[in-house]
Amino acid sequence: MAEKPVLHYFNARGRMECIRWLLSAVGVEFEEKFITSPEDLEKLKNDGSLLFQHVPMVEMDGMKLVQTRAILNYIAAKHNLCGKDLEERALIDMYAEGIADLCEMIMQLPLSPPDQRDAKIALTKDRTKNRYLPAFENVLKSHRQDYLVGNKLSRADIHLVELLYYIEELDSSLLATFPLLKALKIRISNLPNVKKFLQPGSQRKPPTDEKTIEAGRKIFKF
Amino acid sequence: MAGKPILHYFDGRGRMECVRWLLAAAGVEFEEKFLKTKEDLEKLRKDGVLMFQQVPMVEMDGMKLVQTKAILNYIAAKHNLYGKDIKERAIIDMYSEGLLDLNELVLYYPYLSPEEKDKSLAQIKEKARNRYFPAFEKVLKGHGQDYLVGNRLSKADVHLLELLYHMEELDSGILANFPLLKALKTRLSNLPTMKKFLQPGSQMKPLEDAKCVTMVKAIFS
């Protein structure tokens, strides 16, 4: 029997959370080995487990995969979440990349210097409301199907719904004028695996607080 | 017969260059529509052809694809530059992502102030010499093959080749301690499609000069 994937990261959302979401959505149980100190990270580096000396790293199927997108692509391809052909895959990739860009903006907010934070928050909200949410609302409007691509669940739906939860945390009013996205969020959240992941006690990580940032700074020395 | 892909970007490297290299490696001829002014970008946005209001955008096979990685993945998959199965694909993705991370620093370099350039160049050299090049030298040593993955050309080789050329422009001695990377560079440069692309008169773009930087900053202002 295949072993469970093992996720190496620190105990926070960061760049590993989208992987946790995707594995959970496909019903794959996983273990986590949390990096809690700079020494833990050094050990992984010295073991030769990190190709580019970075985490996230996921041990799965005999590989030690690094680079978030490589990990996500592999999980998605293995579990048929990449569409039925190259063209569908291209759309899914395009959507996933746009989602990742906005996720990155949101993720960086707690790390921005205090004097820049208000401006960055304003920009992020502007981009959310005027660039990204309209783009995805329009996709759903154009075909009126239950999923973003090919009338079937793909990784793009999972990544988007994860993002919608973060947008809600940032400012719940941002979603107000996007009825189809709101409906997608409810629909995806009700899928059995996602529903389970959204419940307390799952491996989903809470919003990043100051304490977590400090822990991250110590471990990753930034 | 399918039309040639059309690349929408400015006449410079930026984020489109890796797409040009990959199309060239695959032997795919392409056209380019250059943005020269802010108005050119606004027109594309108004036409509704940029999903996230950004370029690069590539029209190909009936799609208007944006997001560099989506474009690269599609080209690679279509032209058999993505390995033979999902595990090879994962390794190729892992290598490509690392290379594109380093390339991110390199592509921004021309647009920095002189002070920022010094800092960035130091960072680029440090990462290349201590992190990325040793990793790839080790990969090549590990299997002794001519290509990074699966004994066959893949997008990872093309990204690496492009990066090696661009980095040598910034630091001519950077490959000094990496004999296998040097050998890979020579070998890949001699592939017929790459050889053609590396010659003057091809669609390969030079390092952005001051004039180009001014134009680009105006387009995206």
Summed up:
With 222 residues, chain A is an alpha+beta fold. Chain A has nine helices and four strands, in the order E-H-E-H-E-E-H-H-H-H-H-H-H.
Description:
The complex is a heterodimer of chains A (222) and B (221). Chain A is α+β, with helices and mostly antiparallel strands and 222 residues long. Chain A is built from nine helices and four strands, in the order E-H-E-H-E-E-H-H-H-H-H-H-H. Chain A is globular, with a radius of gyration of 18 Å. The termini of chain A are far apart. Chain B is of the alpha+beta class and 221 residues long. Chain B contains nine helices and four strands, in the order βαβαββααααααα. A four-stranded mixed β-sheet of chain B has the order 2-1-3-4. In chain B, helix 1 runs parallel beside helix 3 (68-78) and helix 4 (86-108) packs parallel to helix 6 (155-170). Chain B is globular and about 50 Å long. The relative contact order of chain B is 0.16. The mean pLDDT of chain B is 97. Classes of the chains: A alpha+beta (222), B alpha+beta (221). The A-B interface holds A 51-53, 61, 63, 65-71, 73-74, 77-78, 86-87, 89-91, 93-94, 96-98, 101, 131-132, 135 and B 51-53, 61-63, 65-71, 73-74, 77-78, 86-87, 89-91, 93-94, 96-98, 101, 131-132, 135.
Helix content of chain B: 55-70%
User: Helices and strands of chain B, in N-to-C order?
Assistant: EHEHEEHHHHHHH
Give the helix proportion of chain A (percent range).
55-70%
Largest sheet of chain A: 4 strands, mixed
The greatest interface here is: A-B, 30 and 31 residues
Give the CA-based shape of chain B.
Answer: globular
Distance between the termini of chain B: 39 Å
Could you say which structural class the secondary elements and strand pairing of chain B correspond to?
Answer: alpha+beta
The number of helical elements of chain A comes to 9
Main beta-sheet annotation of chain B: 4 strands, mixed
Element pattern of chain A in H and E: EHEHEEHHHHHHH
Report strand order across the widest sheet of chain A.
2-1-3-4
Low-confidence stretches of chain A: none
Oligomer category: heterodimer
Low-confidence stretches of chain B: none
Beta strand count of chain B:
4
The helix/strand class of chain A is: alpha+beta
